[in-house]
Design a protein that fits this description.
By secondary structure, the chain is an alpha/beta fold. The chain is 34% helix and 14% strand. The chain is built from 8 helices and 10 strands. The strands form 3 sheets. It has a 5-stranded parallel sheet with strand order 5-4-3-10-9. The protein has a 3-stranded parallel sheet with strand order 6-7-8, with helices on one face. The protein has a two-stranded antiparallel ribbon with strand order 1-2. Strand 7, helix 4 and strand 8 form a beta-alpha-beta unit. Helix 2 packs parallel to helix 3, helix 4 packs parallel to helix 5 and helix 6 runs parallel beside helix 8. The longest helix has 21 residues. The chain is globular, with a radius of gyration of 20 Å.
């Protein structure tokens, strides 16, 4: 029993830019029934990074705002540019977040298609370059495009955030092979963003070797968000541990657990 590893032991940390986190789960703050439910779900999830949609929340903390329900000493806020459809909107939204005291650690998304909410890759790259030059630590939401992710890294982004599937779809990772290629191509952390639906999706993603996961709908939209928050916490930890342990190779035929050598003759 002395060699048993618990879920909280021997966990490697996630380093993004100049920040280091123990949890590899990043969660959003939208779609919950109340601010109290939001706060409780985030606490149960164990997340240390919390995304806030700058254009959809109340930035004035003298009014009722989600910012009043989350301890800034406990959580790192990751303002995002949800709802932005061009470079100018995305850049100005990040600057607004910084002016409001939310810092320079930002998630950039520039939507290119209303139906799928797929990002506009060219605009995302342009906005990221402008924000990096303005002193921001940029985490861009992008498609699972290897070339684009490499360009975003070269532009100075501190991570890349390829989608697993369309935002809120719950389809899980549609193309794990592209994710593996991205992991080989870049040195910055790869954070899966969008598309995770349940705990098994989260574990599968982490088993690929990604740095972490960002999710919102999968937890907030569950029948019991608090239970799903705990499930996601455990799934991310389990998936990462399995990746670090190293799975056995897949084989077409059976392989005996015990060798034939040394069997007793009957």
């Amino acid at each position: 029993m002395g060699n048993t590893i618990t879920s909280t032991e021997k966990k490697s940390n996630l380093k993004i830019g100049d920040k280091t986190f123990k949890s590899r789960l990043i969660v959003g703050t939208g779609k919950y029934a109340s601010f109290d439910e939001t706060r409780m779900a985030i606490e149960i999830s164990g997340a240390e990074v919390v995304t806030v949609a700058v254009r959809r929340i109340e930035l004035d903390t003298s009014k009722d705002s989600i910012l009043n329900h989350l301890d800034p000493k406990r959580y790192t806020f990751l303002p995002n540019t949800a709802g932005c459809y061009n470079v100018k909107e995305a850049v100005m939204t990040c600057q607004l977040a910084r002016e409001a005291g939310l810092g320079n650690f930002v998630k950039v998304e520039v939507i290119g298609d209303e139906k799928t909410l797929f990002p506009d890759n060219e605009a995302t790259l342009e906005a990221s370059k402008l924000l990096v030059a303005d002193g921001f630590q940029v985490l861009p939401y992008c498609t699972d495009d290897v070339v684009l992710c490499k360009k975003l890294e070269d532009a100075g982004c501190v991570a890349v955030m390829p989608l697993a599937a369309p935002i809120g779809s719950g389809l899980g990772i549609r193309n794990p092979y592209n994710i593996k290629l991205i992991l080989e191509a870049v040195q910055v952390p790869v954070i899966i963003d969008a598309g995770v639906g349940t705990a098994s999706d989260a574990s599968r993603a982490m088993e690929l070797g990604v740095g972490g996961l960002l999710m919102n709908t999968a937890i907030a939209g569950a029948k019991d968000p608090l239970k799903m928050a705990q499930a996601m916490k455990l799934a991310v930890e389990s998936g990462r541990l399995a990746y670090e342990a190293g799975r056995i190779p897949r084989k077409l035929y059976a392989s005996a657990s015990s060798p034939l050598e040394g069997l007793i003759d009957i």
